[in-house]
Amino acid sequence: MVTVRPRRIRLVCWVSAAALLVVFSAGATSLTGATGDGYGTFQRGDQLAMVGLGVFGALAILLFTRPRVVADARGVRVRNVIGSYELPWEVIRGVRFDRGAPWASLELHDDDLLPMVALQAADKEHAVEAVRALRRLHQAHLATLASGATPR
């Protein structure tokens, strides 16, 4: 079984989400007094709304920590930022990680490419080892089919 999650982007996202929350919370504490030359004044609700916007922004950033790939003898489960796929090995032609590509992808027999955002080029050797492990699982499946045995 192979389970892969991106490394570098997760660290960047957690730090960015925390920084955004701190900035919005600091901005909320500065919302006091008059809004200018008019009659408006900042209220407690304005401060809470600013913190709430920071929380929503941080949660949006944390969506990018969602990608994951899990593969076993039966197939591959890919979870990207938006959307998830579960594919048996029978529909997969190969595992691609083209030079210059931001992430690896699965090449399907119907000529579609399914991106695997969890296997990012930014993770360097970690991503390369994961692609090699996926290719080994795929080759094992092909060998099982060639021998006439039923895959588990």
The CATH homologous superfamily of the largest domain is termed Pleckstrin-homology domain (PH domain)/Phosphotyrosine-binding domain (PTB)
* Tally of strands: 7
Structural class: alpha+beta
In one word, what is the shape? elongated
List the strand order in the largest sheet.
1-2-3-4
Number of domains: 2
The biggest beta sheet reads: 4 strands, antiparallel
- Radius of gyration in whole Å, from Cα? 23 Å
Per DSSP, the total helix count is 3
Order of helices and strands: EHHEEEEEEH
Low-confidence stretches: none
Q: Please, what is the average pLDDT?
A: 91
CATH domain class name of the largest domain = Mainly Beta
Helix content: 40-55%
In oligomeric terms, what are we looking at? single chain
CATH architecture assignment name of the largest domain: Roll
Distance linking N and C termini: 13 Å
Q: Work out the strand percent.
A: 15-25%
The CATH topology assignment of the largest domain is PH-domain like
Keywords: Membrane, Signal, Transmembrane, Transmembrane helix
Domain Low molecular weight protein antigen 6 PH: 66-136
InterPro entries: CFP-6_PH (IPR019692)
Signal peptide: 1-28
What does this 3D model show about the protein?
With 152 residues, the chain is of the alpha+beta class. It folds into two domains: 2-34 and 43-65; 68-147, Roll (PH-domain like). Helices cover 42% and strands 24% of the residues. It has a four-stranded antiparallel sheet, with helices on one face. A three-stranded antiparallel sheet has the order 5-6-7. The two termini are 13 Å apart.
